[in-house]
Records
---
Amino acid sequence: VYPELLEGNLPSSKPSESSSSAPASSGSNSSSSSSSSSSAASSKAPASSGQSAGSVPSGTYKRGDKSDAVKALQTRLDQLGYMFTAINGEYTAGTEQAVKDFQYLNGMEVTGIADADTIVKLNSSDAKKREN
């Protein structure tokens, strides 16, 4: 469906397979232990979403960035079903495509850059999950 995603996925398809199970299990843990996650969320991001495992720090992230914040962005995108490449803290073409898909399906301007509006929407409880 997204040829750009397939092109960006080829170099890192093997690491994605080995790391895709870890974020899925952390996503289920965050929903079952929301009381403990709210205290952790208060130190990093607003506790309004109640999802510390999925909270992305504020800022603007784009291709070429490398950080723990980018890893948090990738983890949140994975929880919502948008990531198809390795979660490694590097904002590559695969991450950019996941952000574009998220922006498109959530009615936002499609830029591929995770700006303040995108981060707010990612952290909100009404962020749309990608249907496969």
Note: The chain is about 55% helix and 0% strand.
---
Amino acid sequence: MADVRELPELRAFRIVFFHCLVIITLPVLSFFTSKIFLFDGLLGLDTIPSNVYAAGIAVIVLHAALGAFIYKAYFDTQPKISSKSD
């Protein structure tokens, strides 16, 4: 059973790993979903403009994911566990 207080290294690893997965998967998913459903399907664009617009959407999503990671890293308010014993 996991301890209520998680080790700081494990907690940091889990946060970084989660954000790495988000940074890798969300732009790829947003590229293909916007290309297939929005630009090819709904708007009926040709291949090259559809790819360019979908890449633009993926870049915006990537920057949002990176911004979320930077915000989380900068404003992390978890109390630090002291190794000093009284």
Note: The mean pLDDT is 87.
---
Amino acid sequence: MSSKLDQLTGWLKERKITEVECLISDLTGIARGKISPTNKFLDEKGMRLPESVLLQTVTGDYVEDDIYYELLDPADIDMFCRPDPDAVFLVPWAIEPTAQVIHDTYDKMGNPIEISPRNILKRVLKMYADKGWQPIVAPEMEFYLTKRCEDPDLPFQPPIGRSGRQETGRQSFSIDAANEFDPLFEDMYDWCEAQGLDLDTLIHEEGTAQMEINFRHGEALHLADQILVFKRTMREAALKHNVAATFMAKPMTGEPGSAMHLHQSVVDETGRNIFSNSDGTMSQLFLHHVGGLQKYIPELLPLFAPNVNSFRRFLPDTSAPVNVEWGEENRTVGLRVPDSDPQNRRVENRLPGADANPYLAIAASLLCGYIGMIEELPPSQPVKGRGYERRNLRLPLTLEAALERMESCRQLEKYLSPKFITGYVAVKRAEQENYHRVISSWEREFLMLSV
């Protein structure tokens, strides 16, 4: 590790970095941490943050006291955050030369903090490594561009492009519609290249001003780091061009939701894809992997759909799958198996929302498949044709129901820390309670003078 830290020191000095953003991800996927002068960062080689940062909600509130004190020291002690030399990125939009460094979290005895999202993903990856396996993932990130708006009570509107007009109608895969925002995407690509992000293609998705960025396949932890950085980068590029980028799962009424599709496969120590037999057919491990996804995604759904808004993606006629059926070359089911050669055989989990914490969504998706392989779980019969209306393998349709299911699934405690499950469910329940305290425009419009 010391040699890697030396490489990090050299990297910062070579680029004349004057400030370092020291980051961790909280449970909601928000980057939290400190901004440090480079000299201080190099002297301390880490930072301290209150443990309570990991139990903050998206609104900045905390969980109820009884859960808080069950999971954390009542004295609100610090955790120790150490930089990962393999998770260092420039901040190209900063005025001064600045870097962002993702940190791992530990207690004072050097043990990984159990409720840290990055540590959860590392825990799952170790399970694979202990079997001689390495997961390979390729995320696809959907998002919307919108007009900037200061009033949260007003609906989002599509932004004005180079033509001076707002986009109207569905423009799936339209090159010209994507080119409306060329200056923005040129900055985004330049900044991502400067940060070493493994972007592949840009696509105009189905929704109005909805886009998708595909990442090249690679190692799971590195890609989770990249998604955290990419979201910050995309928002900054949008702000520079006086529009907004949102990764909400369902930001606009009547428009499709935004997903974080996850392609995943597994290779052995020789690099061979264990999802294929030597004759090129589907292996039993692949079928068990799919079986695990089918059985456990509904139990871990809050990690894929973490917010009240997430479940609006799963309403009827929203273009999103609402079950864990599987099928080959079938986009109407939750688990799609793309047509590919045997070495590239993979399954695409189409259920995570763009609003999901990347560490937790990738960890959960890989964990479901891992359990399936370990417990030799059989999949259902693959679906041919339209799968939206299939009801046998439906998902919980509200956050309340999903949290109850996750909390009551005792099998998960064998693989995930009970502390993490308790903490995550508590954070999401606190957010849900906060949401229920807000009166919506729908209630004012339809109930004010009618009931």
Note: The radius of gyration is 22 Å.
---
Amino acid sequence: MDINQLNYFINIVECGCNLSLTAKKIHISQSALSQLINNFENDHEVLLFNRKNGRLENLTSAGAKFYDYAQEIVRQYDEMLEMIRKESAKQKGTIRIGIPSMVLRVYFSALIPKFTLENPDIQIEFIEDGTLELRKMLVDKDLDYAVLLEPTNLDDKKFEQYVIQINEMTAFMSPQHPLAEKNLLQWSDIMNYPIATFNKHFLTHQLLLEKLNKINKDKQIMFKSSSWDYLIEATKETDIVTVLPSPINQYLDSTQTVEKHFESPIPFNVLICRPIKDKYSDIESLVFENIINYFYQPIID
């Protein structure tokens, strides 16, 4: 069997040996699937499936072993293609950067267009996700760089990490909210109100939940989303308190939404991270140095 036929075989097994269901799933005729199995069994003089009334029922012992090998071969084949895709991207001058969507919009919207115009042969591919998933992708070598929130929990011996922005999490609410008149919030102030923030794929969700549970271990985050726009909208005409990174405030209408700082805030520190290598390519170095220089440029009075 070639790689496509192995995929057909795997799908047959995963569909409970139902050829009709498999045919609909992978858009191939039922007769072609049946012929594939029969030809293989005849050519190799082995039965992959037990049959009942002419229908496939389940895997034989040989079929089960073949299924395990098929899964591993397809997995390695997919990994090989992904490796080739990445190597091709590098040769074409493509750098993959993992970054949370909000951080991309707030901190990189000015840098990247300018860099791209000045370096048209270098392509930057952004992978947008939460810090937890991006960290995993960086460790698994699926990214060249990742923009992560602190704490990154990366091994300092394997990854370089540079802080590029320092900020904090703040509370957003309606101007009519009972807490809107307070100058500075305690965490206990928001415990009697519904709380909203990013979903569990974001590190900010985890950090906020840990902070709340120190006061009341039963306190839950009621509203969760990957969209900060939705989370802000949820505060209008309600008592919902949305806890999000403070930089979001620059995009909000102050007549519709109030931002309040905490006396003991959760840090929102942004870091650019990359694997430590003996040597970086010219393109890798150029992109990284431009990011660092952009955020570390001296302040001129």
Note: DSSP finds ten helices and eleven strands in the chain.
